[in-house]
What we know:
The chain has seven helices and ten strands. With 236 residues, it is of the alpha/beta class. Helix 7 links the parallel strand 9 and strand 10 (229-234). The longest helix is centred in the first third of the chain and has 18 residues, at 9-26. The protein is globular. The chain binds fructose -6-phosphate (F6R).
Amino acid sequence: MKYIVVNTYEELSNKAADLIAAQILVKPNCVLGLATGSSPVGTYQRLIADNKAGKIDFSTVTSVNLDEYVGLDGSNDQSYRYFMNDNLFDHVNIDKAKTFVPNGCAADLAAEGKAYDEMIKELGGIDLQLLGIGLDGHIGFNEPDSVFTGPTHEVKLDESTIEANARFFQSKEEVPTTAITMGMLSIMQAKKVLLIANGAKKKAIVEKAFFGPIDPQVPASILQLHPDVTVIFSEN
Ligand code: F6R
């Protein structure tokens, strides 16, 4: 594992964007695993700037996102599909038809999960998976549990996750209580993993996940078993 500590969110975002840009350079038709939330916003801004400056070409890139709230479709401004369009896809030359986000409105979420995993397999797997980390150690929406869950599946969100995500909604009551998330299998099968975390309040969970025991109560700790993980942490 490469554990990189930087001072500022800007440095974190620049380093993460450099890694993603390098991935696209060495494999222009790569599959990027992408995340939402506040952590990757700066990284996406740098990627947009680089794309506009002609330094990165997304035209042959495919993307697969980690997760989506159940019940929110892409037109809902709190959905993760909307977030991705707004924070990245609408501003770079990626082919939207090659950007995938789990469908949180699928009538049969178990079938949707199975189809999503199948699609990732058919794409040849994920070359580089970008991750944030929740205060409870979740990655994607894989919440603390008694076991690590493999396939893409429906999850009930923890109270702490609902509280943390309430900042994006008008009120806590509006935060969906369930989501569909890529499971540990697709994440662990990614060829490379890049986890970014910023802010003093994330320090304890990042240290627990990467320097503590591997424990499904700290979902991100499974990444200690991944052969190619880069963690970038900034206190600010
Ligand atoms: C988002 C996701 C989540 C977030 C995590 C951290 O697609 O899968 O695991 O990465 O909740 O969120 P932020 O970055 O908002 O602190």
